[in-house]
Automatic annotation (TrEMBL):
Positions of the UniProt region annotated as Disordered: 337-375
Annotated ranges, domain CCZ1/INTU second Longin: 208-324
Organism: Scylla paramamosain (Mud crab)
GO biological process: vesicle-mediated transport
Name of the protein in its database record: CCZ1/INTU/HSP4 first Longin domain-containing protein
Lineage start: Eukaryota, Metazoa, Ecdysozoa, Arthropoda, Crustacea
Occurrences of domain CCZ1/INTU/HSP4 first Longin (ranges): 14-136
Length: 375
């Protein structure tokens, strides 16, 4: 029947690649420009052709637009987004536009749903990807200087393979555009107990540089700069914590075999000093390497950063666990009870989301929409 929908295709990622426009200047060496290409199943000629076309577009557009980069190319079937996060290094993403096949008198006709693919959303996805990379590795050029070209390619391959398996790059919403983060509303007493717990922790371990308190993907407290908070929140919620839940499920029986693994099981990571290297801003706003410790128990995740120069020992982890375990268990139980009551009181009771610019030392408390700056 005319007008009936027969088939539907949704937007999907066709390719994602990163290249350095200063490499591979000699004929026959164009492949040297490529730092990363997805899907890796594409043959080298296809990769070189796509990178060459993207580079030609950026150069051509620069003759007309002196005040910025080429941002997007539209065709009937695709959207191609461009981003230059660092000098001479481009990130390019191509997304296929979804379509609906409708039966007409002349036969089936595909109607492309271009309004469902927004440049601002896709560009925000690219920006979020780069921020997460910067959280772990500082920048492309920093990795290049430290590990060389092959080291940069290996780092990009490892990072992006993991990132793309957990984040849908071809879609997003308003929270993606504004790098939104979700805040948890709590009553004043519970919030002050959390504050006291973290203050005691920092007083007991003065080498702690920053703290953050999450409950089931919601932010309760954070001493990081807002830009770092956005990156850390996404990294936790899309990559670290989901994989931790899987590993805990598969190793429940073995993890309870000794007291040694008992306290270590509450830290995210492997080894006797489980930690990650991240890059967060110092007082001057410069990215600096830090150790990140993640303490996770009963839905609560506490993030602790230490300067890279600090030595992490098994004794430090055991002392942190001894201080936190009973306090976090009680806090998690009380927060869960509050969340259940709010969820039962009606829609919209569980908190809001925030974006916008922030500053170092922000604390979020009662009803979470409030943000005050401490001095």
């Amino acid at each position: 029947m005319a007008g009936d929908s027969q088939h539907t295709a949704y937007p999907k990622l066709l390719n994602l690649f990163i290249f350095n426009s200063t490499y591979g200047q000699k004929e026959g060496h164009e492949h040297e420009k490529i730092l990363f290409y997805y899907p890796n199943s594409a043959d080298l000629d296809t990769q070189v052709r796509h990178v060459g076309l993207a580079e030609a577009i950026t150069r051509f557009s620069s003759t007309f637009r002196k005040d910025g980069d080429c941002e997007a190319v539209h065709t009937q079937k695709t959207r191609q987004l461009f981003m230059q996060p660092e000098p001479n290094i481009w990130m390019v993403m191509t997304v296929a536009i979804g379509w609906v096949s409708r039966m007409r008198e002349s036969g089936p006709v595909r109607e492309y749903q271009s309004e469902a693919v927004q440049d601002v959303v896709l560009r925000a996805c690219l920006a979020s990807l780069y921020r997460t990379f910067a959280l772990r590795h500082s920048s492309f050029n920093a990795v290049l200087e430290a590990r060389g070209l092959e080291g940069l390619k290996a780092t990009l391959e490892s990072f992006l393979t993991s990132y793309m398996s957990s984040v849908e790059l071809s879609s997003g919403d308003i929270l993606t555009v504004w790098s939104g983060v979700s805040f948890l509303p709590l009553d004043r007493q519970t919030f002050l107990r959390i504050h006291c717990c973290l203050s005691l922790l920092q007083a007991s371990f003065p080498t702690i540089a920053h703290t953050a308190f999450f409950y089931n993907q919601h932010i309760v407290w954070c001493g990081l700069a807002m830009e770092d908070l956005r990156s850390l929140s996404q990294y936790l919620n899309t990559q670290l914590l989901p994989s931790r839940k899987d590993s805990l499920t598969s190793s429940t029986s073995s993890s309870s075999s000794s007291s040694h693994t008992s306290y270590l099981s509450r830290f995210v990571g492997k080894g006797v000093t489980p930690s990650l290297q991240v890059h967060v801003r110092d007082e001057c706003g410069e990215l600096q390497p830090h150790h990140l410790l993640l303490y996770s128990l009963m839905g609560v995740t506490i993030c602790l950063t230490f300067a890279e120069s600090e030595s992490l020992t098994p004794q430090l982890f055991e002392k942190i666990d001894r201080l936190l375990e009973s306090k976090v268990s009680q806090l998690a139980s009380d927060i869960g009870e509050q969340a259940s009551k709010k969820a039962g009181s009606g829609p919209g009771a569980e908190g809001g989301s925030g974006g916008g610019e922030g500053c170092r030392g922000q604390r979020w408390g009662e009803h979470s929409a409030m943000c005050t700056t401490t001095t």
